[in-house]
């Protein structure tokens, strides 16, 4: 096992009715920026519940944060926040809104061009504190310090990470997910699944507990994910998906083990260029990447097949191929298509993605740093 | 799944050499009470490493905290801490030392008789901050707020719990466990195993991820525990046992599910009366308790057998009996005896334990509250 330092500071408020807990966790004389997305929270009652919990608190609203939140929109939110001198951000939404809140929090007191936080790793101080009310289980953003922001002007999707912008609390009420469109449910399950894979499917370092935890999340997503589509108002199913998505990327399972993240890095460019849903890009890239890296990942792919998919082939090559197929089949069962051509993309997309990877310095991806531009092109070729 | 609120504030510093990180985490102008046990840390080099890391820091030593730390000794530590006006406690040892540190921290500013914290749930304020350097993986005390203290004068073993006394950081260096006596290794593995069981082996509430995590810890302890005895200087084995013991009782796996803890409550009285090791009492009580409660726990016992011990019997009764036997065999394989008579205790012990349970108000134990004094006597009878 590798050395690690781990702490997760987010207080999880899990279950029906937990919104009522948020007010006691705001600062004295709170002036809250309520950040949200396209307005679905106004239709499904979450907005009303939040405003009811915040009765008597000074609230400034900023709606319209997009999926794959843009720098351009978030900078408007920074302006609004400054105009009203807020001292807290309550992000109500999915990963995009929470990621956006982290960027707004970091940019609030930043001197200079906040885009530098994303592209130059510029340091920032005194970020606004954040709370999250999660409506879409997927990214784990509610209890980590990660944020991904896209600059529309240049089609650049970039990330930053800091424990100082991690939410202080996160309300996880499974009922808030009942009204999600099926496509978002599918995307969320696939996203969480791939988060686990990025921290698990590398090479063995004798860390059996981390493996068991990762496999446990995968198993839960495989049994509960399809039920979330077929039984949208099954509370326990929604709760299990929600808790799995949070645990998939709250830092725990990745401690002391190598990590990959190449599927995400390649996928980000597909989103930046063609506006594919984040999860769609992961579903395209991962099976092809597993195939291209099947030698480096042989041991863990076999273990994944055996423990998670109950595949027990004596022949190693068959075991590996069947496991890759099982992952792909799971994405398809979640109604997320797994080939570039399913999204009307062809070979032209490959060169465009590779050019973007080069521009963004993503030339040595994966746990061994051996996914160079040629390998990335090969992976995308396998995904046609 | 049940509602829950969860946060774990302890920063885990895991791996070789992490002791060097502690100084940066002390308060300004730290005056540290270094709390430790019987002196093994002076023989195995941990004391020297701690003092070297603390070079230049004002340190007051208090050694001699016993296994099952006593109120009497800890009150002496409180006196020492007050005399020297310390502002931080560094607990270097196993669960007993860390539990003791929590009590000293709580008692430090307490007005009145600090025993009331344990027997009356008296509230306390402004506890001293604590850091932990773990030398014995077992109790999980390094990243939870629980403390168990025994009053020698009255043979009372009592607990209190508060997030305010949870360690701010915990150094988990697997090398510090190389020199542990085999009996302490055995006890630690059994203790951690039973911590998981207390949070897992109740009744299903459709919380599959919690189940998978619990099963993952049990599986890891079963494969790594015996190796910790046979290969005492195998770093990865020690690391895996250490991380498993921490995860077993840092609050995570018990969120949203019913919990039992009756094995611990009955076991505590055996320790208080006969000075048995904590883990010995658990190894005695658990198999008998599983047998006595096999109807209430039927579903989870079968699942435990299937998923953790690979027992797959068509007949439910056989499945259950074989699973209980497998748990008992695991304890015996860890060289911890499982019968009262193995410790020269007979029926007289049963009535004494039951009398103590009654005195301490432990008359409705277990996840259903159905373990009354009669049932407790029956369980202990099965363990003769």
From TrEMBL, chains A, B:
Gene3D superfamilies in the cross-refs: 3.40.50.1970, Dehydroquinate synthase-like - alpha domain
Molecular-function GO term, any one: butanol dehydrogenase (NAD+) activity
Residues of the Fe-containing alcohol dehydrogenase-like C-terminal domain: 188-355
Keyword Transmembrane helix: no
Needed cofactors: Fe cation
A single Gene Ontology CC term: cytosol
Ranges of residues in domain Alcohol dehydrogenase iron-type/glycerol dehydrogenase GldA: 10-174
Organism superkingdom: Bacteria
Keywords, comma-separated and alphabetical: Oxidoreductase
Family: Belongs to the iron-containing alcohol dehydrogenase family.
Protein name as catalogued: NADP-dependent alcohol dehydrogenase
Species, as recorded: Pseudoalteromonas peptidolytica F12-50-A1
Source species taxonomy: Bacteria, Pseudomonadati, Pseudomonadota, Gammaproteobacteria, Alteromonadales
Gene symbol of the encoding locus: yqhD
